[in-house]
Amino acid sequence: LLKCADRQHHVLVSAFISNTQDVQANKLFTKASVVRLPNGEIQNTNNTLLAQKDLWNILEKYKDASVDKGKSFITYPNFLKAKEEVCLKAKYIFVYLLHLFNFIYLTYSLSPRRYFTATIFAKLCHGERFSRVNILSFFNYVMKTVWLQQTRIGISLYDAHGDGYLREGDLENYISELIPSLCKLNGVDDAFRTFYVCTAVRKFLFFLDPLRAGRVRICDILACGFLDNILELREASTTQARLEENWFSLESAKRVYASYLRLDTDQNGMLSRKELAGYNNGSLTDAFLDRVFQECLTYEGEMDYKVYLDFVLAMENRGEPQSIAYIFRIVDLGGQGRLCVKTVEYYLNSLLESLGDGPDTPRTCDIINEIFDMVRPKDPDYITLDDLLKSGKGDTVLGILTDIQCFMLYENREALAAGIQPDIFDRSAFETNKENAFAIRIKKASEILTDEEIKNIFTILNKYTIPSSSSDESYISYPLFIQAKQQTSFVNANLPFSRFFSPIAFAKLSKTDKFSLMKLSDFYAYVIKMTWLYRTRVELSKYDAVGKGYLIEYELEHYLKSQLPFLNQIKDIERWFIPYYLCTVSRRFFFFLDPIRVGRVRICDVMASGLLESFFALGYKTKIKSENDYFTLSSVKRVYDNYVKLDINKDGSLSRNELSRMSTGMGHLSKFFIDFFFATHPSRNGVIDYRTYMDLVLALENRESTQSIRYLFNAFDIAGHGKLKISMIEDIFNESDRESGSKEFLNFYSFVYDKFKIKDPEYITLNELLNS
């Protein structure tokens, strides 16, 4: 930026830039344009007004006679005397610029007066009891200021647009030309040079360009302190420990790049979701990984090295405001700038699913309460980014929601304070536990009675039966039952059948007989049923990867798929339709057996629900004619065909407008419900997938069940407090017709008030609905 007396100089400069094709002339113009200070005087700070030794000698000359703890001070009167002597020694320099508007002569003065001001003296003497300034502090201030001016001029040479900003390409050029001057980077080879420059530049852009505008201010580069870290690489005495902590060191860049190559198992230069799951020993939760690939820029579902660098910077600097904002943007499901209770619960469910079920596993509601108590948000219903930043606990909260190791460290913070190292989540140990659990399940499988063994047991039992005079049934008394057990145990000593010959089993099966005798046929049916249940449980346990007695949806679908060849009524299923059939069937299990949406179902609940019996009933050769049976092929196809009809855009998902066309048998869904449904249920880019649609269908087709009431209630309960405002319900009634809606609402409210016995006239709670 040149200052000329002629008002038309700006026009001449613009014409020069736009018309010239001379590269050297452009470089010369750039150098001339940056040699300017705010007061309008062009100064060349590369030529020092005084040698460092001269400045120090003058300060020593006027220092105070008293010395405090080895430190030398200067009073304000002597400070002014030193100022005058320094100004007398200042030199006048002439700069001659050629090949720029023919020629220009510029005379300027390197004025040291701006360092010797009352303002600077007052700032440096703040807190000193005699209002003096430490001459070493003042000397360092002058040297630092001169260095900043020199650095500013050096960086401005790369400001191609002359607007005080550096773009990514400008920063890459600056770092590239700076490398030869850094002795700690002498070992960088040409092949790795590009990756080093990229690694260094990403830190500037990540922390200094929070709005992702693609540029950073030069003044921010000077103020951030990153240049100090880079200049550490000029010192040969920099220790290895400091180099490992310095992001700009060659060791740090190679460490990050090596981790990228380690994760890239298919060696295509990009990271998929499955590959990124191995980051930090696989401690990131599945829910967070899903959101990373939804929010971050990817190429055909994979992330490149620059996006990975941003991710690493956020993970390694969790306490920085930029990192908190980066992670918050990822975990914010609705993109509304806040985390409601449902969102926090969603991430905690994913976390606890990875930890498995155990006696020390905390409850979701307890962790939610602890997080909200920790943050103390302005609005108790949700947490905003400002709440996280003001609380000073943003890194802890986001770490708990996204990383298993961070959660474990937080849970064991008392042990850490006491010097005890807690157990840290390790993916390799996790896989070892899986193998051990599988070995135990194989052992259990060997304990299942075969049909031949069951036949042998009943051959012995027949010897102790009491024939009935009135029927063909055979009975057995309890003493004979015990004798048969002893003989069976002697003949089949290795068989675990004692659980069948228990007093409780005999009491249950003989309670209807007046003589307390047990029918042999009832006991036979009991043994067959229990053996089948035990065999099925062992089969299900083979798909329990964690070995905690739970199945996630993927594992349940694999088990159901393995049973399809044995189902006579499903043999005609087309290959392309199998995934949709399995998804539809498994959603029924999860809808009714996982009401709090943890993402897993207990194997014992699967066995006790009766759903498996309905599923295995498809193995009978006689076809089930009822269309209401959920597991029949015709029933599943009916649901899928309805989904396809609603999907007008043919993109495999449903938008708000498409879902509004859904018919429930009682009319179409209300606009209010659809708005609330999309606000409270996970949706990608404002659309829902087939699984979410299936849950809605199950809720609407089974309205009387507790799970459906809870599901539909939660769709309206945006805040997640377990209660609905009466005023909101009134708005829903008034949606179609305000006059008739008000009358219907009054009738509804009087019915609700009497029937549900609500305590608060302004709210209806979920418990009141369920108890009614």
- Say what oligomer this is: single chain
CATH superfamily of the largest domain, please? EF-hand
Structural class: mainly alpha
What's the rounded overall pLDDT mean? 77
- Number of structural units classed as domains: 5
For this structure, the CATH topology of the largest domain is: Recoverin, domain 1
Give start-end ranges of low-pLDDT stretches. Answer: 1-21, 36-49, 91-110
Largest β-sheet summary: 3 strands, antiparallel
Under CATH at level 1, the class of the largest domain stands as: Mainly Alpha
Across the major sheet, the strand order is 1-2-5
Radius of gyration: 38 Å
- How many individual helices? 39
From the N-terminal CA to the C-terminal CA, the straight-line distance is: 78 Å
CATH architecture level-2 label of the largest domain: Orthogonal Bundle
Q: Please state roughly what percent of the residues sit in beta strands, choosing from under 5%, 5-15%, 15-25%, 25-35%, 35-45% or over 45%.
A: 5-15%
**In percent, how helical is the residue content?**
55-70%
Shape verdict: elongated
* Tally of strands: 16
Question: How does this model look, in words?
Answer:
This protein has 772 residues and is mainly alpha-helical. The protein folds into 5 domains: 1-157, no CATH class; 264-425, Recoverin, domain 1 (Orthogonal Bundle), CATH 1.10.238.10; 451-531; 543-631, Recoverin, domain 1; 717-771, no CATH class. Helix content is 55%, strand content 7%. It is built from 39 helices and 16 strands. A 3-stranded antiparallel sheet has the order 1-2-5. Strands 10-11-12 form a 3-stranded antiparallel sheet. β10 (466-467) and β11 form a beta hairpin.
